[in-house]
Design brief:
Immunoglobulin-like; 18 helices; globular
């Protein structure tokens, strides 16, 4: 192999070594004073993301939308919503990202559109229009046909069927009632959506994050879903409100679809583009999205187990072993601890900056693609917003749930609570928008203590720790491309330990996941610690270290 082909193959695998920063555009930075973050705001803050060392930016939807689900209800796929800017500004953003040697991926919502999309309006108007079969319509049961076709629930907990009198039929939605699912058994739909992917790839985007890819196909026989004893979905099982969503998620055809979409993306190979999917479910099943029956599919799939795994050494060791078992080379696990739907990291850690640093050390030294949800690098907390004040469609749908139950839950029912604005400085509105503007969601009350400007100036801040660990990862082949071995000889109920190895270079990562001091098993060269002061022979409570184990 010539040196050129070696670097070419490394370039094709850029996504395996990358670090991803996830921007929720409404909440990142408002450049025009309307209280809503926008594309010029992202452009203005690119140097900040680049300074931290992130190599890829993932942006939540910015296309035309009625904004009932804040962009995940798409009404025009090949557009930019005026809330955020226009196509010329998006093209400028892409250019500025690439000029910094970074990549840009964004959400492609393939599963459903908004019910205000022109396709759906046409489809809903009659049973014999050209788009009549672009969505999933079924006759109801009962004498008048007004009973839903089956017992299916949607992932958001609501019933999955909505009756449309114009067609005298029910329409199926996997998520919220205003987000009708596209019918991928219709080849015209598939062709149209693949062309939309090509439209953005031709513009130069580096890939897509695929929203609820697990819902693309359903059981054509519409069999009833079985009962479940679970109220809320877990990372292993798709169950909600005592129903297991067996027949409307993770259908066999969804894995075939992943391979077909990969073929579309592989038409664009310089540079290589990527696909990252969102799916709940057991790792031993959802890895089929990436590789199935000898065919390549998505490059990676979100592994939500990391969100719900208790912050304890044995649990994290089991999680790592499971990821290694089901995503061995050439597959790659993902390391996702938060996003626009889940509780903020620092709040899950009980407000502990020590634990947040330890989690960052774990995330950036493991084998896998690390994802940071904007603001977690400074420790933005969950901002309590009562359901009755929620703008989030899921919050509106669950207004009947008593607030004291909502407050006791570790996970959030009002997703507004993890979507509040970025905290840039200690001015009014935390520098997210002009002091005289009204931000679209309330700013965290402790923004004067927690903000980018302040943490930039504090050497031991969470922000500066993120910067150090990302830089170490980017510069160390064993950390960004090496193999992982659990160091079982050092693992205990309080300590997680693993090696990262590339060639003759071997590093040991030690994580004290307890409130006790622990002896350090090796007296070696420490490259990075979560604690600045400490003893060489002892790990402080919740201290993590990266050490040189062998170096030639």
């Amino acid at each position: 192999m010539s040196p050129n082909s070696a670097s070419a193959s490394e370039d094709a695998e850029w996504w395996k070594k990358t670090t991803v920063y996830h921007i929720y555009p409404r909440s990142f930075f408002d450049s025009n004073g309307d209280g809503i973050g926008d594309i010029p705001g992202i452009i203005e803050k690119l140097d900040y993301i680049h300074y931290l060392g992130y190599e890829t930016i993932w942006i939540s939807p910015f296309t035309e939308s009625p904004q009932k689900d804040f962009g995940y209800d798409v009404s025009d796929y090949c557009s930019v919503s005026s809330h955020y800017g226009d196509m010329a500004l998006f093209e400028k953003l892409l250019q500025e990202v690439h000029a910094r040697g970074m990549k840009l991926v964004f959400d492609l919502v393939l599963n459903h559109t908004s019910n205000e999309h022109a396709w759906f309006k046409e489809s809903a108007s009659s049973r014999d229009n050209p788009k009549a079969d672009w969505y999933i319509w079924r006759n109801g049961k009962g004498r008048k046909g007004t009973t839903p076709p089956n017992n299916w629930r949607a992932m958001a907990g609501n019933k999955a069927w909505t009756y449309y009198p114009e067609r005298k039929q029910f329409n199926y939605t996997a998520f919220l009632p205003f987000q009708p699912d596209l019918n991928y058994d219709n080849p015209e739909v598939k062709d149209a959506m693949f062309d939309i992917a090509r439209f953005w790839l031709n513009k130069g985007v580096d890939g897509f994050r695929l929203d609820i890819i697990s819902a693309i196909y359903e059981d054509p026989e519409l069999r009833d879903n079985p009962l479940s004893f679970r109220l809320a979905p877990s990372d292993k099982s798709l169950s909600i409100f005592f129903q297991h969503l067996k027949h409307n998620f993770l259908h066999e055809k969804s894995f075939e679809f992943a391979a077909e979409l990969r073929n579309v993306v592989d038409e664009f190979d310089s540079p290589r583009r990527i696909l990252i999917g969102e799916s709940h479910g057991d790792e031993g099943l959802i890895n089929r999205f990436c590789y199935d029956k000898g065919r390549n599919g998505l490059n990676a799939i979100f592994l939500f187990k990391a969100v719900s795994t208790p912050f304890k050494a044995p649990n994290y060791r089991d999680m790592l072993m499971r990821f290694e078992e089901h995503f061995p080379e050439p597959l790659m696990p993902t390391l996702v601890f938060a996003n626009h739907d889940r509780t903020r990291v620092i709040s899950r850690m009980g407000g502990s900056v020590e634990k947040a640093k330890l989690l960052a050390l774990f995330q950036f030294t493991c084998r896998g693609i690390p994802f940071t949800y904007f603001g977690d690098e400074i420790g933005i907390p969950r901002v309590r917003i009562p359901l009755r004040h929620g703008k989030d469609a899921i919050a509106m749908q669950h207004k009947w749930v008593p607030q004291f139950l909502v407050d006791r839950s570790a996970e959030i029912l009002n997703r507004d609570e993890c979507r509040t604005p970025m905290l840039w400085n200690e001015e009014a509105n935390a520098g997210f928008c002009h002091v005289s503007s009204q931000p679209w969601l309330p700013v965290a009350e402790n923004f004067r203590e927690i903000n980018v400007e302040r943490q930039m100036a504090e050497p031991d801040s969470l922000l500066n720790f993120y910067r150090k660990v990302i830089r170490l990862r980017n510069e160390t082949r064993a950390l960004n491309a090496g193999r992982l071995e659990i160091a079982h000889e050092f693992c205990t109920r309080k300590m997680l330990a693993y090696y990262r190895i590339a060639g003759d270079d071997k590093y040991l990562v030690l994580l004290n996941m307890s409130k006790y001091r622990l002896k350090v098993p090796l007296d070696n060269n420490v490259l990075l610690s979560t604690h600045t002061q400490g003893e060489a022979a002892q790990l402080q409570p919740f201290e993590g270290r990266v050490m040189v184990a062998a170096h030639h």
